[in-house]
Design a protein that fits this description.
Strand content: 15-25%
Helix content: 40-55%
Strand order of the largest sheet: 1-4-2-3
Structural class: alpha+beta
Mean pLDDT: 78
Shape: globular
Low-confidence stretches: 1-19
Largest sheet: 4 strands, mixed
Length: 120
């Protein structure tokens, strides 16, 4: 019994970090001409933004491949989300954690969201 309780205390902090699996958007999808309505029509991205709105203290984390192009894609997605009403202080950019030629977006809640620094 003691081992089970110890195990639960060890995994509990990690369980509170991410509310949903990371949504991965390929560069092929991202490079299509788009408007704000196109982002709103993306069901998975819309779910993440709605989750952000429903959970105070949560943040969106955008993973991008290293390099100039990946950084530009991430900043462009962040700009689109801000233009659509998502507070910029609740969006963080993180290099890595996603395959080359893709963007990843995840909703962080709990301790994972609280420890993040706001993006510039």
């Amino acid at each position: 019994m003691r081992a089970v309780i110890t195990f639960l205390f060890l995994i509990l902090p990690f369980a509170a970090v991410s509310a949903a699996p990371m949504y991965v958007m390929s560069a092929e999808v991202w490079m299509r001409p788009r408007q704000g309505a196109d982002l709103l029509a993306d069901e998975r991205l819309r779910e993440l933004v709605l989750g952000l709105d429903e959970q105070s203290g949560s943040r969106l984390l955008i993973h991008y491949p290293g390099g100039e192009a990946g950084g530009m894609w991430a900043h462009e997605l962040r700009s689109w989300l801000i233009a659509l009403g998502v507070p910029g202080a609740r969006i963080e950019l993180a290099p890595g954690g996603v395959r080359e030629a893709a963007l990843g977006v995840e909703l962080l809640t709990g301790r994972g969201a609280e420890s993040m620094e706001p993006s510039q």
